[in-house]
Design goal:
Blueprint lengths: L5 E4 L9 H15 L4 E6 L9 H13 L9 E2 L4 H12 L4 E4 L3 H6 L21 H10 L3 E4 L5 E6 L3 E6 L7 E4 L7 H11 L4 E5 L6 H11 L5 E5 L2 E2 L15 H4 L5 H11 L11 H4 L13 E2 L11
Parallel strand pairs: 1-2, 2-3, 9-10, 11-12
Antiparallel strand pairs: 4-5, 5-8, 6-7
Bound molecules: glutamic acid.
Length: about 300
């Protein structure tokens, strides 16, 4: 008997949902629902001040408006501190976790100028502190905690992007598990939640592909299974511009003043090549057309004329 497929959509409500997030929700949802699987909703409101309750509510109602119906209760990362703490303690028992007292300014100063797109790698400043030095520094400030990574490479077999390999010491280097303010870092939270929710398939934006080897490494350390990964290409507007919260991408709230839910879903489906031309669609009507293997690897483009300001 094959194991049931469990997928999830895991938005961070630090801004309004935009078409890029919604496309991700749509693909994640259709991918498991077309195989009789379950799809969960997880709200990644780990960083409470950046994710106010009003944005959390808006995110859930936006998804509802488009017709998404989730299996099981919604999981809120802001309520999961004790689960993350338990896994953090297990990681500390490996002896590979160390306190880091570096300030933001010190971390900045250690970065090479003009580093362009190269990834920042922590230089290991606090790795060699002695127990006495650690005790002294603890009196002055609370540390962050980092995981010391071995010199190994990890390959993600991505369903859309193909294989992606990272040498952990170069990407990401020793990474943060818990910030100095006590908030657990994204990697630890995601890996814990996916494992405890029984997630077997992760569909998300390809901007997270480079971070996936670190998550797989955490899964290995914690004895969690590695789900199947599918990182979908970025969605760009009709002019080829990236849609992102920080670029003031048009929100679903704005789109919903101009378009009906089936028109919005149709525009997303057309951008992913599920239908040849933009037309109204429901999630239900897209089921027979869905095939993850047919999704292109290159940027996905919203149809001409689809924007939050001009009517159809
Ligand atoms: N919360 C992340 C985001 O909104 C996605 C994390 C994930 O899917 O693993 O970009």
């Amino acid at each position: 008997m094959s194991t049931p497929v469990v997928g999830r959509f895991a938005p961070t409500p630090s801004g309004f949902l935009h078409p890029g997030n919604l496309l991700c929700a749509m693909i994640a949802y259709l991918s498991v629902r077309t195989r009789g699987g379950r799809c969960l909703l997880r709200i990644e409101d780990l960083d409470r001040p950046r994710c106010p309750a009003s944005l959390v509510r808006q995110c859930i109602s936006d998804l509802n408006f488009l017709g998404f119906r989730w299996d099981g209760p919604i999981l809120y990362q802001s309520e999961r501190t004790s689960a993350y703490l338990a896994q953090f303690r297990r990681l500390r028992e490996t002896g590979q976790v160390y306190p880091c007292f570096c300030s933001r300014a010190q971390l900045h100063a250690s970065q090479a100028p003009n580093r362009g797109d190269t990834l920042y790698v922590y230089p290991g400043t606090c790795l060699t502190l002695t127990p006495t030095e650690i005790r002294q520094r603890m009196q002055e400030k609370d540390p962050a905690y980092r995981l010391h990574v071995p010199d190994i490479s990890i390959t993600v077999q991505d369903r859309i992007q193909g294989p992606f390999t990272a040498d952990l010491v170069r990407n990401p280097g020793d990474f943060i598990l818990r910030r100095a303010d006590g908030v657990f870092a994204y990697h630890l939270a995601v890996v814990t939640d996916d494992a405890e929710s029984g997630v077997t398939e992760v569909v998300r934006g390809c901007d997270i592909l480079t971070a996936t080897p670190s998550q797989i490494y955490l899964q290995q350390l914690l004895g969690f299974p590695t789900p199947v990964y599918a990182h979908i290409p970025l969605l760009v507007d009709a002019n080829g511009r990236r849609l992102a919260k920080r670029d003031q991408a048009v929100s679903l709230s704005a789109l919903s003043k101009v378009y009906r839910p089936d028109e919005i879903l149709g525009a997303l489906a057309a951008s992913a090549g599920l239908i040849p031309e933009w037309r109204p669609c429901t999630l239900e009507s897209l089921m027979p057309l869905f095939d993850l293997r047919r999704l292109p690897r290159t940027d996905l483009r919203l149809p001409e004329g689809f924007s939050g300001t001009s009517p159809v």
